Structure prediction request, 259 residues.
Amino acid sequence: IYTLDFGKDFPTLIGVGLASQLHLSDPWASFYSSQLKTIYIKNLDQQSINFDIKLQNKINPFFIPSLVMLSEQILIYSDINQKGNIGIIKFERQTNKFTPLIISDSHEEKIELCLSNKYIYVGRFGINHSKLGSKITQYDRSNFSIDNGKVIYESNMDDFGNIICNNNQEKVYFVKNISKDSFTFRTEVAELNLSDQKVEIISDLNYVTNIIDIDGRLLIPHIGKFYILSGRSNLTADSLEAKEAKETKEAKETKEAKE
Prediction:
């Protein structure tokens, strides 16, 4: 995993792993080593400042933890215990204290974390046809307490989840199970309006597994293609291309002036 300053040519290696993220408006980065079962957190401004969290998970080799940073001192992440059940843990860096916040009663459930400007979202989704159902709970980011959540979505279906909460501050997106019976399986992208908790299906691809948020665009990877769900589809307005176009125009005007 590398970082690269905007406009520069030489990337800097920060580690080897996957599930890399930027935090707190980008001065912090994290990534996960599946081999070492460890989350690494590094300060990009001062790379000598770094720490790591060793997971308890020894059961599921495919597990990738969720992680959000509330501040430079407080992190919340997911882990799997010795029974194979997923949980949410709060880590206080200054005191090196770990506090379990949620522990699932079943190994057939996954828990996701998503952080927006105002809220933390915790999604709980049944897996493997468990019939545990799905639930998304909203927490205040500035005064976070696991006891003060507001359930904004609940279903008796096992949704895929993969929550996107920072594309639109008034909406949350996730992959919803809309199968009509046990003989067919259909999933689509759902849009959850935070003002009234109404859910609207906004894709029609029959089988969606993930959503990707890139520069304000929501993309759906599907059978070797990427579909733009929302955001600009015309990339000519992209800031990089706009800058290049401006520089080309200035160079042309300079050349004409010399001639």
Summary: The helical segments are 239-258.
